[in-house]
Amino acid sequence: MMAESTGVDRGIQSLIAARKSLKLSLEKSKAIGLALGKTGPRFDEIEQRLPLLEAAVRPIRADGEALKDVGGNINRAVGPAAAVLKVFDAVHGLEKSLLSDPKNDLSSYLSVLKRLEEALKFLGENCVLAIQWLEDIVEYLDDHHVADEKYLSNLKKSLRGLSEFHNDRGGGEEKERSQLRLDGGLRNAALDKLENEFRRLLKDNSVPLPMASPSSLGDQACIAPSQLPVTVIHKLQAILGRLRANNRLDKCISIYVEVRSLNVRASLQALDLDYLDISVSEFNDVQSIEGYIAQWGNHLEFAVKHLFEAEFKLCNDVFERLGLNVWMDCFSKIAAQAGMLAFLQFGKTVTDSKKDPIKLLKLLDIFTSLNKLRADFNRLFGGAACIEIQNFTRDLIKRIIDGAAEIFWELLVQVEIQKQTPPPSDGGVPRLVSFVTDYCNKLIGDKYKSTLTQVLLIHKSWRSERFQDNQLMVEVLRIIKAIEQNLDVWMKAYPDQTLAHFFGMNNHWHLYKNLKGTNIGDHLGDSWLKEHDQYKEYYATVFLRDSWGKLPSHLSREGLILFSGGHATARDLVKKRLKAFNDAFDEMYKKQASWVLPEKDLRDRVCQQIVQAIVPVYRSYMQNYGPLVEKDASSSKYVRYTVVALEKILSSLYMPKPMRYGSFKGTPPSEKFKNDVDLRRTTSAVV
User: CA 317, 323, 326: angle at the middle one, nearest 5?
Assistant: First the structure.
């Protein structure tokens, strides 16, 4: 039993021990399982870190020579890159200064901007070098397996981006974008501020030239001084230097041209130049704008000698460091935009107007104005940049010379054509005669002779023809002699010989009086003038004899002495003779009441001769025989005029009518003159 009990106990002990062992094993297995569960993520972490560990230990496994050289290569690559980064930091350090207003301290602002430009230049030149060094070291590391492939891949990608950034630096907009990437647009912002400061300096110091009045133009100094202070010019030049260095010169010139041309236009506003825009369709003939043409010469001289001269000098002062072509181009744009072409266009408009003799004088006035300014034109507008003004001026001068020469050479033809027209019904001086004598005196007078000679000489030279020194005078004398021939034709055209003689007296005196003492009269000679004076005297004598000279015969005293004892018979005879006188006088007065003697001296003389021929006879007759009829109830029928009234009537004969406009007609332009050229004339004009 004891033995069995002992055996059982041992078996139980064995089971308990086994259970404990099993339990312990289970707990260990459980602990191991838990430990294994915790170890899995660590293995994953280790697995992930293995490439890094491998990369870290790769240099240890790399070739010894490669490891030896890699340090120096890395240092050489990192050096330029570090310098580039340092400059980048310096660029950002300039931002505050460059975003301030350059007005406060322009010199410092320009200095800072120049530092920015130098920094950007350094970056532009050295960024590529730094990238190349980095690319070389990456390639070295890759070739010698000194670095991790993934790391090298990322590094290559970054370097490739930098390389593309710097290789994308072409011209125009691409280059501009590249620069913007380098400085974030800081330089452009600074340049914009400089442009604004350039504009401000110009506007603040550009003041229109003051004038007391347009009439005081002749009192102005010939050459206007520079209109900008020297300090301002120096600032403008400094700004131009920086803007030019950054390819902003064209914009700067545009600003300058805009501001200065507006200033010139403001100076011209006081002159009231609206007439420069007039078109040919807005006026009938040159006479209607004659006043404008006179103003035009004064205004053009003022604009050239005062305004454009000043702008020419100022452009040179401001842009002289940039070269002749730059400042001349700038000046040419100012001249064009400020209105120089408008002045020339007005001259062209005059040349386009219809052709008439007065136009010749106005063309000569325009030529004189241009010729007076020829040296100024050549100096101011002679450069290649002013080619438009040069061409316009040359064309205008050609039009003036061609037009003036054409009108002059047609004058003789026009005078000859006029002989076909009827003479004036009032026996006065035809408008043609008075106009041509006055006109020819002007053509060879001090004002126009030299200019007309020069114009005709140039015109002949263009046609390879010779112009004689005295050719102008010869042509004028031919015109005057054509007038003489016209007078002969017109006198013969009158059916009334008394009116023909009155006409001859009138016109021969007009020629004598208006040509004596003139250049034309001197060339015609004393004998020619004396001949016309004699013709005047002859026709005056015949006129008086055949008209008013017949009236005194009606107051004959014949037979009145015989009837001195018979008052009734004498009274009837006096009545009859007074009635005949009155009727003849009334008829004569009615006939000649509309006749005119435009020359006052001739009119006074003729009227005095008529008075002397009639009034003394009438006075004596009335004193002796007037009482015979004055007491008669019907005396008013026979005594119509008192002596005083008769003298007053005769003294007031031949008064000219008020001036009016008429026509010096000819043929159309294609065949000579326009038919509707208006010129001043009296009622005695040829119509």
Answer: 85
